Automatic annotation (TrEMBL):
This is Transmembrane protein. Keywords: Membrane, Transmembrane, Transmembrane helix. The lineage of its organism: Bacteria, Bacillati, Actinomycetota, Actinomycetes, Geodermatophilales. The keyword Transmembrane applies. The chain crosses the membrane at residues 28-45, 51-71, 91-107, 113-135.
Amino acid sequence: MDTAAAAAELTALRADRAALAERVVQPWWYDVLLGLLVFLFLGSYATHDWWLIGGAGVLFAVGLWGLTLVYRRLTGMWVSGLRPGPTQRAMTVWFWCCVTWGGAALLDLAVGLPWLVVGASAGCAVAVVFVSRWWTRIYVAELRGEL
């Protein structure tokens, strides 16, 4: 392969990655629905009613499945949030949000503070909206070769 052909192929690959970077950004409502699902599921633990928690778990699973289908239909692909690379920073923040929620849930069980679980659930819901957007921005920058 000559230098000119290799350069042309690299240019085409860069153009494909730039187009992909534009295509992978989810609509704003996707993140809002994800946050709502997280709040309903995590917040259900404040009720201490296993039927409600189970129902919220089913709703959460179906909602995530639906969001995945919609994302795949909109973008034509799916990227795991747990993929290695720079996006792990966002996932680390999300992990610590979940740890914080777990601490609130344990305090509720020990002392009886359901409002703390509701508050932590609301915090996790807001956090997942912003972490999802942040994760996407990191991934787009990675596709564009900016990282």
